[in-house]
């Protein structure tokens, strides 16, 4: 099993930010911050797996008091190059058990990161930890992809998710354990280290939306809203991802 602390090391942290592009683009971040600001209702928020501050920093700039929990020392160090502890305090630890405090209005976990927890028990533990952080009636927001098992050809266990100049993303599935390994292949005439190609692998445990809802109920939440994206577009059978808002009821 791949160790998450080793996976999100100094090299990964140094390459994580892509200012103005991809998931760091304004088109992605603006609706994300808008939704989270509204759900916080002027109260404090905590981001599980805060990373380098991709969402936490603009959310803080929008006036929300933001704290974070993050496992990777390297990702926290990268965040600290941008903002200080006084602005976005971060607890280093596992988001299934680490505590950033109590009585938050909002807990959020974005960009598929709950799938970095590789067992069902850990994923349920994440929901229960979110509940411990929230004030009564608070929200837990999860952004997650929908497993693309319909893309698997008969007799095959892998799919090509991205194919573009210089980059391939290939996902391989174990449908018994619900594990996915994402194989990131970067190639070109010659990379910086003299090789023609590099491959990195990231492990995940995929979760069906209905399974996610059951995890939420075990922790005292009810599903309030589910959208296909942060623009609140309808979630349908063809949606490849979702943003789910859970309300703490107990």
UniProtKB/TrEMBL annotation:
Q: Name one GO biological process term.
A: methylation
Highest taxon listed in the record's lineage: Bacteria
Entry's CDD domains? Answer: AdoMet_MTases (cd02440)
- The reply on keyword DNA repair is no
Gene3D superfamilies associated with the record = Vaccinia Virus protein VP39
**Span of domain Methyltransferase:** 46-138
Q: What is this protein called?
A: Class I SAM-dependent methyltransferase
